[in-house]
Amino acid sequence: MRRFLISTACLLLLTGFTGTRPAQAAGHGPQQAVASEEKAAASPADYVGQDTCATCHEDVAKKFGTNPHSRLALEHAGKGVTCESCHGPGKAHVEGGGDVTKIVRFDKASSKQIDETCLSCHAGTHPNFERSPHAKADLSCISCHSVHEAKTDVALLKASQPELCFQCHADQKPAFGMPFHHPVNEGVVKCADCHDVHGTFQPNNVRATADQNAICTKCHAETRGPFVYEHAAVRAEGCLGCHSPHGSQNARMLNMPSINTLCNQCHSRVANHTVTGMGAGSDELQPCTSCHTNIHGSNINQAFLR
Ligand code: HEC
Ligand code: HEC
Ligand code: HEC
Ligand code: HEC
Ligand code: HEC
Ligand code: HEC
Ligand code: HEC
Ligand code: HEC
Ligand code: HEC
Ligand code: HEC
Q: Is 188 exposed, middle or buried (CB count within 10 Å of its CB: 0-12, 13-18, 19+)?
């Protein structure tokens, strides 16, 4: 679906493309409106084409040949995303012998201008960026991405995950060093598996799914259900009702050091186990889950004993 969206944008770009600005080519959504107004003065004659840029910026142009932005373009008869799609029309810059005030320089642009430029093509996949905590904190696309100096093969990141994230979120680092943690530093799980840093409708940039537990059950399918006998806590509280998502001092990344204390938050110990002899003082006895083994739900036993 993502691929489809971006290639649709790209086809629009290609079919309408004769060296015109991306805002015009990529569609006419509300995001494009501002960018279009800004560059309203530009006409096709203001564009010089990528080959001209290459005469003076040989190194940048050469490297750009392997950039995903030009890779896809090359598959479509050599047209598509070119220097001027991002840097704007270059005629005045060239005629000024490289006048830097006449070309879009990303290190001088505001976050908003940068985002508008990138979103003129990428709004289809990242429509919520402007409402994300990252945009609100005045980050822009190039806080995390670099077009010419990317350190990762995929997604053009300035650093690979999780280092990229820890540069600014050092306070999250200790959780991933706890005795029980998601293997993020080990490279097995990525921050972006659970977060969409481009903005979501959920708090904490957590990925939005129809069923909020699906963030977790896509990897932990055995907890997904549906079960004949659901544990109401899993639906009502979600996985985070009992687990810490990053890491924990407790086995199974539980929120509480003792399983029994965790369970007894909701289950009165006296009421439960007069039958089995469990009851008051059960904190000191064997863990509830030594009998209630299928704690996320069961298809055969109402008390999750199997
Ligand atoms: C006649 C030579 C020439 C051509 C052609 C040319 N440039 Fe430049 N460009 C320069 C010079 C000289 C500078 C200033 C020195 C520098 O920083 O590299 C410059 C600076 C820039 C900068 C700012 C660099 C910075 O460090 O901030 C960008 C971006 C840029 N050019 C993009 C382009 C693009 C895109 C094209 C094609 C549309 C292009 N240039 C065509 C000579 C040229
Ligand atoms: C997809 C958007 C995009 C395209 C296409 C693009 N650039 Fe850039 N360019 C950027 C961004 C963003 C920066 C800021 C540095 C970075 O992110 O790598 C930049 C920086 C530059 C700079 C400043 C020096 C530097 O590396 O920081 C020059 C010069 C430049 N680009 C030239 C070009 C030329 C020449 C082309 C075509 C061969 C081109 N750019 C294509 C987005 C783009
Ligand atoms: C003119 C349209 C256009 C503009 C403007 C543009 N992009 Fe892209 N971008 C594309 C296309 C086309 C691709 C290739 C899509 C693909 O491979 O599916 C792409 C791919 C990417 C990728 C994914 C690379 C990968 O490994 O899959 C990233 C990240 C990206 N762009 C970031 C940016 C950023 C940041 C900016 C602004 C500085 C920007 N783009 C501006 C059209 C554009
Ligand atoms: C806080 C860091 C951050 C910011 C800010 C950011 N990105 Fe990303 N972006 C990422 C990461 C990390 C990935 C890789 C996601 C993954 O591993 O699944 C990514 C992936 C992408 C991709 C390729 C895969 C996809 O999901 O489509 C595109 C395109 C992209 N970003 C564009 C943008 C644009 C455009 C902006 C600005 C509007 C932006 N990004 C802002 C971190 C960021
Ligand atoms: C350039 C600095 C920077 C980078 C890089 C960065 N972030 Fe952020 N992030 C921020 C800022 C600033 C905020 C908003 C203030 C805050 O809540 O800390 C934020 C907010 C967040 C939030 C929401 C926190 C909340 O309380 O709502 C999450 C989740 C997040 N970032 C995850 C990530 C992930 C995952 C990555 C790596 C892919 C990443 N960030 C990369 C600076 C950054
Ligand atoms: C297994 C899923 C998962 C992974 C992997 C993950 N997170 Fe989170 N993260 C969450 C969830 C869920 C929350 C919301 C916690 C809550 O609501 O109590 C959260 C909350 C956050 C917050 C905001 C809460 C706070 O403590 O300030 C930040 C920032 C954050 N994560 C950053 C990161 C970074 C950086 C990485 C990678 C190093 C990462 N996360 C990896 C699931 C994950
Ligand atoms: C991208 C896949 C992925 C996602 C998404 C994910 N996990 Fe995990 N989880 C893992 C992996 C891998 C491990 C480590 C398994 C191991 O060490 O055997 C793990 C370990 C765990 C453990 C400890 C298991 C044990 O046997 O000790 C718990 C509990 C857990 N995850 C809960 C969650 C919760 C809750 C979420 C959602 C917030 C979540 N996971 C999201 C992949 C994922
Ligand atoms: C009512 C509390 C509770 C809720 C809610 C809950 N869990 Fe658990 N989970 C536990 C307990 C307790 C254990 C440890 C079981 C044991 O030690 O035998 C556990 C163990 C796990 C394990 C380790 C493997 C296993 O099955 O023993 C994973 C993975 C896991 N949970 C994921 C999840 C996911 C994903 C969700 C949300 C869909 C979730 N949990 C919701 C209490 C809960
Ligand atoms: C957040 C609250 C919460 C937590 C924590 C919790 N539960 Fe539950 N549990 C419930 C609710 C609500 C029900 C449904 C009660 C009902 O139908 O009477 C339930 C049902 C059950 C049932 C089935 C009851 C029946 O009527 O057959 C068992 C067994 C059970 N829980 C055991 C546990 C164990 C063991 C733990 C600790 C690992 C635990 N629960 C943690 C809320 C919780
Ligand atoms: C020695 C095994 C064992 C342990 C340990 C155990 N249970 Fe049970 N539990 C059972 C059995 C067997 C049943 C079914 C009893 C019945 O059907 O009358 C049951 C039933 C339940 C029920 C549903 C019936 C009711 O009375 O409402 C709940 C809730 C429950 N247990 C919670 C807990 C909690 C909480 C703990 C830990 C504090 C725990 N159990 C520890 C064996 C155990």
A: exposed
Tell me the torsion sign for CA atoms 296, 297, 301, 303: positive
What are the C-alpha distances in Å from 287 to residues 39, 79, 246, 250, 273? 67, 65, 24, 14, 13
Instruction: Copy the structure tokens of residue 205.
Output: 């940039």
Cα–Cα dist 93/191, whole Å: 41
Q: Report the distance separating Cα 35 and Cα 249, nearest Å.
A: 50
Say if residue 28's pLDDT is above 80: no
Cα four-point dihedral sign 260, 262, 268, 273:
negative
Cα–Cα distance for residue pair 259/265, rounded to 1 Å: 10
Q: In this structure, which amino acid lies at residue 50?
A: Q
- Kindly report, residue by residue over 97-135, the tens digit of the pLDDT: 999 999 999 999 999 999 999 999 999 999 999 999 999
Confidence of residue 153 (pLDDT cuts 50, 70, 90): confident
Query: Hey, what are 244's tokens?
Result: 């810490």
pLDDT at 76: 52
Q: What is the reported pLDDT for 81?
A: 87
- Enumerate residues lining ligand 4, CB below 6 A: 2, 115, 118-119, 122, 125-126, 129, 134, 139, 141, 143-145, 155, 157, 161, 190, 192, 197-198
- Per the listing, tokens 């996320």 go with 296
106, 142 Cβ separation under 8 angstroms: yes
